Fold these 4 entries.
Entry 1:
Amino acid sequence: SSIFLCLYHFLEVDLSYRTIMSLSRRKQRLRYMQRDGRFPVVFQKAPGHWSPYLMDIFTTLVEIRWRVMFLVFSLSYILSWLFFGLCYWLIAYVNRDIHNADDKLCVANVRGFTGAFLFSMETQATIGYGFRFMHENCMVAIVLVTVQDVFSCLLDTIIIGIIVAKMASARKRAQTVGFSRCAVVNLRDGVLCLSWRLGDLRGNHILEGVVKATIVRYIKKQQQGSVMMSYQDLDIENREIVLATPATIIHKLEPGSPLYSVGPEDLLEDHFELVVSFTYPGDSTGMLHQTRTSYTPADIRWGQRFQDMLKVSKRSYKVNYALFNETTWVPVPRLSAEVYNRGRGGDQSQRQNFPLVRRSGPSCQENLDNAHEVMHQTSL
């Protein structure tokens, strides 16, 4: 009987292994949202294509890349120096400063465009070498210097504000808060649950945040390339999270859940995306931050649970983030929640055990050695 029992478990291992391999090798579809939270959406022929960016130029400059920001930063000063330098050169040309005596000049020692450009740069940067200076007998040049000084203060304020806003950007803080690479389905108090992990990698802990999860499906219409999007929110236990230690977000597969009738075999054919987000205020700046990611059916591990990563010592709670994405097989019926609840208390042979799974790198890798260890796994 022990031989038949071992053969039975090896067959279950092989079946589970092939199911996961089928999910991973299935043709990759375009994700609604990338793992890093970006959406692969391109607007074509939108009305007023550039007007939204120009109307909110400050936000546009905050959101652009740093290298583009440095280019705009440099060009804004160089172009302003050139513009005012050209104005000074025109004043010198009209006033004939090239041939006039020193007591009749508008700007001293400005004999050409190069001198006018240097005077413009010295004025706007408040360098003040003293070699080039303004005479009081030229009112037009005095007015121009006044305008340049005011413009210089305004430009410095805008540039400094944009740089400070970019350095305090919410996206940078969001990169230190992350979700697990995969979601798992297991039993909790006799109920099938879908769960995933959320953790904060920084030392200053988040004491207030809200989790949201949405199922996104798209159906292709008859017209070529046309799709229709549908959104269904998931009910989450303890939507408000205290993230002092990593938290496990739980959604019960109960009647009313969009995934109530989805089983492990249905994941091979079903096409949906679980979009999850965590919105929280920054403890240092008070700004709202948002971390988000998405899970496809290939990212959902049926019959697994996350390994424990929190231990208690005499003086502190120790969190081992090396186990953040680690999962372990647990006994879970290979049935949808609807079928499981319908036949609950019936034939117990529907419940099956699975081998150990270890998280390694960006994808879950199966460890099929020592299949007899399955019998020692415990359910949550």
Entry 2:
Amino acid sequence: MAAVAICGFALGLSLINLRRFAVAPAAAEEDPGWSLTVCIPARNEAANLEDCVQAVLRAADADAGSQTTVLVYDDGSDDETPVILTRLGAEDPRVRAAETKPLPAGWNGKQHACDSMGRQAASDWLLLIDADVRLAPEALVRTRAAAHRRTGSNPAPALLSAFPRERTDGLGEAMVIPLIHFILMSYLPFGRMRNTLDPAASAACGQYMLVRRDAWNEIGGHASIRASMHDGVLLPRMFRRGGHATDVFDATDIVECRMYDGFAETWSGFVKNAYEGLGNVTLLLLLTVLHLGGHVAPWCVAAVGGVGTIFDMGIPVSKPATGLALAAIGLQLVQRSAIARRFRQDPRIVALHAPSLVLLTVIQWWSLVMHLAGRRSWRGRTA
């Protein structure tokens, strides 16, 4: 019965959130444009940087009424990133290399890069994106329209984050990365997020965050989260503590990202910040119980009960218990099917919901171990 309640709650909130989590609207007919700096931190991004910058420039071309600058921070790259950046700057004056400094003690590399770019920018708005993000031509125009859209009683957001379409290649990536949307839809109270400034009722995706520069300066910029590896969780909380609203929108149709390449990179990428995203052991324990007890256990009960019934093995799993387990599984499959369809995810993950959550739980606990050991690392740097 508990598993049915857990899965039913997750499905119900997901269906509500899927309606509230709208795509960006079309631009208004009288759109005055804006001044925008697109900030791209780049550490060994030779494989991504040119495609990312060219996509931003195409989006800027489609937003001709705005003043758009692309600022790239080369964060100590030892591949061809600096050469590519120099060439891109020579080809288009809108592309600039940010002034760089050695990474100070106590700073995460990405947060230092974003903080440096924000302080060098002169625009009213900053768009912070990762180098593995690709923008559709209408992305900037529609992001601005989303920034002016009212979704609740809160004032217009000073931080607006988009969740891109997450491209995956291979089952290892597909079992883990789409869980971002599962967690978002299952647990974020969109109504509370849009009608209060409660820091706990917030979310963002570090791959694509638009911030109003004056508000960003007011909360201390990325210096306020200098040691973090999870800007998507901590930065919106800092904005809300500073009295500024935040919001999110669905960018599946205008932004995409190849977050990680292969299962090994996916594992490392999630381990580096999975525990930090939760913030405490109590929440980790709660999610472990909800996921293993509410989502995974029904598959075990149904399997054992089914085998016992078919082969008359006398296994002590009653028919009512098996029925409840099957009901919980049905709720899960409906939820994951709706999410996979909406966000264009690999359809195989629907049937792999239970092993995906087992894998996520292992990642979260291993992330805690790495956190306690001081061994969380990314791109050759330890947190």
Entry 3:
Amino acid sequence: MMTIRMQAGRRPGARRGVRSGLAVSAVIALVAACTPADETDDTPDGDGEAAADQDGEDGEDAADQDGEDGDGPPMGQGWCSDVSIAAFPGGGQGTPFTNNVHNGYMAAAEDLGADVTYFFSEWSEEQMVQQFREAMALDPDGMAVMGHPGEEAMGPLIDEAYEQGIQVTVVNVELPESQEEYGPQGTGYVGASNYDAGRRLAEEAVERAEAESGDEAFVWGLLSQEGRGERTEGVVDGFEDAGLEVVYQEIDQATNADAPAGTPTFTGVMASNPDISIVVTDHGDLTATAQTYMEAADLDQDDVYFAGFDLNPASVDAIQSGYLDLLIDQQPFLQGYLPILQICLTQTYGFSGLFVDTAGSFIDADNVDAIEDLAMQDIR
């Protein structure tokens, strides 16, 4: 299920380079015409900290295909070619989840013709803040940013961006105050409702595992992060309200950036708490590493019920092998594609921010085969 709603806001503001007064039906036709890019391997070079440019191939040829009288709206391939965007895929280049978001960004850039520059942040809040400043220095028309650092860190930066005439839209972790403040100017949100998603997963895992009050559940999450931690909070609340005892472990930055680095942590927690019957990893990369963790801890597929977040090739393999029992899919490809479309719609047509809840369905051994091919392409 994907929910879309308009963002509310307290005050409107001027937009840079916005054409207004165009029919909604024209935009619907343009959105319907968008198709995924044929290739998803056109990734930028670098070590994950540097930005790389991604241009639409047909930008010059299709930059301004107006109506017959020359005064109509831009239409056809490359209708957003006059717009420059800085986009944040989240983690390290080529890693699970980040790769899906990146592929969504690239597909939108290809379809719409936008000039997109990418910043890979290794899921480091400090790096996201620093790269936000670096992106502003490029003076793009818009920025698609992860909300992980929270309002205290990101709010003033977003204020500064709008003072410079740069539109900002939010990905993966909400920034509610900024979204409310700048919604009319194009600040939207694409991602899951994190607390609700966490709680839903915990409740589903309890039911499927037939857990009982007093059972132990291991939650490996990110409670320390202001906004992102809401999903972990939802998992913990869901288990505790069902009467389970929660063993909690914070994901350290080394594991946050490189999931296999957390293998000793997992084996240590499981050895110290042999009565754990459910495990939830609140991180796509960690969920994708379920089989590695289980094998390292000398656990068989049926020894614990393992659940987590996000679909990718490794998590498909883990489900099919029996080491991963359940995950909730938040469709990260859409978290890349739709923010680029959001910025293009605002810059070209003057539309306000959209709120898109991408949290989809539960994936398990009964339905994973239906989307395996797309998952292997880092689209689903």
Entry 4:
Amino acid sequence: MSAPLPKRRLRQPRVAEIVASSLRSRILSGQLGDGDLLPKQEELLSEFGVSPPAIREAFRILETEGLITVIRGNVGGAVVHVPHSGTAAYMLGLVLESRGVSLADLIDGMRTLEPACAAEAAQRPDRGTTVLPRLRANIDASMAAIDDPKTFISLARAFHTELVNHCGNETMSLVVGALEKLWTAQVDLLALNPSVHGTFSDRAVRLSLAHEHERIYRAIEEGDAQSAERAIREHYSGGGERRHGFDTSITIKADTLRA
């Protein structure tokens, strides 16, 4: 007869974690909106039947997660921050920066992932009223700004943001969108400087980039997922997204998202 297995000691969640979990659920479920105040400490003490230190610790947990900001002083309180894609991009940027990841690595990741977003967009049955009007407006605005490098570069990046944000898959929009935000922040900091416009200073290059975006648009319009994927991949491999005027061997800087 085999010996009985030793009992596993289950870790009991701390009281503060239980309180934080309840408040977190209210934020994530929409019961509390962005900018709302959490209930006052006295109300929470009564609701949960815990001590003041437990409430303070719960607030600390939520503040560390970026879900609230505690206002100290006579007024006091805690302001709610609903998570958004910018938060995800910044946290991802911090991790990538801590690992010394280069801009070249970032753009290679986008080259791999964004074609899937283009394919999703091409397969949207409602693409004619969702993603296509936004891409069309962007391309038209880009052509109108063809002689203004700074404006054109911003619009060229916005094309990719619109594509990813409206591809129709929320998970991909968030994950790939975080990479897009990081890359766009680097472009805003570096390529928008007139001294480093690089080949974007050449009108012919800007026109070629606009034509590449038009090719992507047409593939999505026709519902051709494979062509849309191929057009984006070629755009990143040897096309417009490789034509910039700054050094991509440098490390990603998360703070560019807050510049």
